[in-house]
Amino acid sequence: MSWVTKTLTSSLGRKLIMAVSGLSLIAFLLVHCGINACIFFNDGGHTFNEAAEFMGTNWLIRTAEIGLFAGLIIHIIDGLLLWKSNAEKRPVKYAIVKGEANSTWYSRSMGLLGTLLLIFLVVHLKHFWVVSRFTDVITGGQKTLFQEMVDVFANPVPVVLYVLGCISLAYHLLHGFQSAFQTMGWNHPKYTPFVKSLGAGFSILIPLLFAAMPIAMHFGWIK
Amino acid sequence: MEGNMNLTLKVWRQKNANSEGRFQDYQVAGISEDMSFLEMFDVLNERLINEGESPVAFDHDCREGICGMCSMYINGEPHGPNKGVTTCQLHMRSFKDGDTITVEPWRAKAFPIVKDLAVNRSAFDRIISAGGYVSVNTGNAQDANALPIPKDNADDAFMAAACIGCGACVAACKNASAMLFTSAKISQLSLLPQGQAERAMRAEKMVAQMDIEGFGACTNTGACEAECPKGISLENIARMNREYYGAVLSSK
Fold first, then answer.
1. Does B172 contact A102 at a Cβ distance shorter than 8 Å?
2. pLDDT tens-digit profile of B178-213?
3. What is the pTM assigned to this prediction?
């Protein structure tokens, strides 16, 4: 086994993969949220459609999209493998675990929260990514992406699902953001308090903005 | 030492590593609130021996919180409900008359049960043997002042060295990870000039041994730090990560 494989399959290496892929997904979330927040200009989706068209046609962005999916798949597979191997490290479970005495429930539930996010993601990709990349509904000029959002969120079921997805995301990030820095060895009295505050702010603000989108569209506040 | 506490104990009984274990209920009466948790078990065991039954096996040695032998998982927490103490320093005044107390062994694949509440923690010894040492040349000891050590480093090394290797970190971790222990044993040496010679080799070998022993990976929940009777900090895990990544990138 080469030293690279040996390192990346060690317990520390696999955690490093989770941290680095997780941080790249955090960077993606910032861009995604920024573009989508253009709907709040409330100009009939004009600014949003222009931004979406740029993202869909610019070759640099399209190349980065491949990296995004690679990062996503690595994060999911490595996460599931870690979840399975960690669970095997305690074959006989405790009768009583007083988890709340020593840690937050969401830090102990990253696998569960991640799985909920994965389910949400499948539905989300089907709603928008598949429609804009693999059909000619948007490229053919039948509908704008904004109109597609209006149509999807007219139905209350996706709205509820998206809000639940955002809540899972918030808790996943609340632990994941600062945890990624700890895994990379970034723990320092000067920077750690800043990283933790930034992480908490990001984890609340970004999912809140995302959740506001389907709600605002459903109730017709955004036209 | 007579008292007036009456308690119900649910204790894990298991004959040996290969047999099936189960909880057994015991009523203990006349317990003093000034007894330690282990002394309460002594009272139970005296009775069991008098009744011709097998006493409950549990590890203990110094009974003053420094040897790291005692290891009970009490009501869902290693070393019980109090912070910064081992089981031998936990007193019965932390419980109420009439309480039911569930006592389990450390549960981890890497810590096989020897009998009842006693587990085999020699996996920790093998992690230490893999690299948790310094080489000392023969000859006269050199002058202590020849090795300047910043006070902060000395303090951090000393705080890491407070680890008594009890295994509460593994018991508390949802992944049965030994990273708090291993990182403390790496940190106490890597922070000092005497630990520099084996520094890179140490992190690489100790982490490899930790994985071989069957401990889990770290999710950074912080349960280990919260339950550690010696308050070993999570900063040590971050330091171990830096040491390890640096070591694997630069070793030949």
1. yes
2. 999 999 999 999 999 999 999 989 999 999 999 999
3. 0.94
ipTM: 0.92
CATH topology of domain B5-114: Ubiquitin-like (UB roll) (3.10.20)
Q: Which residues of B touch A185 (CB under 8 A)?
A: 238-239, 241-242, 245
Q: Note which residues in 60-99 of chain B have CB less than 8 A from chain A.
A: 73, 75-77, 81
Contact (Cβ atoms closer than 8 angstroms) between residue A32 and residue A48: no
Q: Report residues of chain B scoring pLDDT below 70.
A: 1
> From A184, which residue of chain B is nearest by alpha-carbon distance?
B241
Q: Please name which of B130, B89, B110 lies closest in space to residue B213, comparing C-alpha atoms.
A: B110
SS3 B22: strand
* A14 in contact with B, Cβ within 8 Å: yes
Superfamily of domain B121-136+144-250: Alpha-helical ferredoxin (1.10.1060.10)
Reported as a single tens digit per residue, the pLDDT across A135-171 is 888 878 788 999 999 999 999 999 999 999 999 999 9
Q: Structural domains in chain A?
A: 3-218 (1.20.1300)
Nearest to A89 among B176, B222, B240 (CB): B176
8 Å CB contact of B207 and A12? yes
Contact A89 B235 (CB under 8 A): no
Q: Is B186 on the interface with A (CB under 8 A)?
A: no
Nearest Cα neighbor of B25 from B42, B11, B13 is B11
Question: What distance in Å separates the CA atoms of residue A18 and residue A79, rounded to the nearest whole number?
Answer: 7
- Positive or negative: CA dihedral B84, B90, B94, B98: positive
pLDDT in tens, A57-87: 899 999 999 999 999 999 999 999 999 999 9
Residues in chain B with CB shorter than 8 Å from the CB of A184 are 241
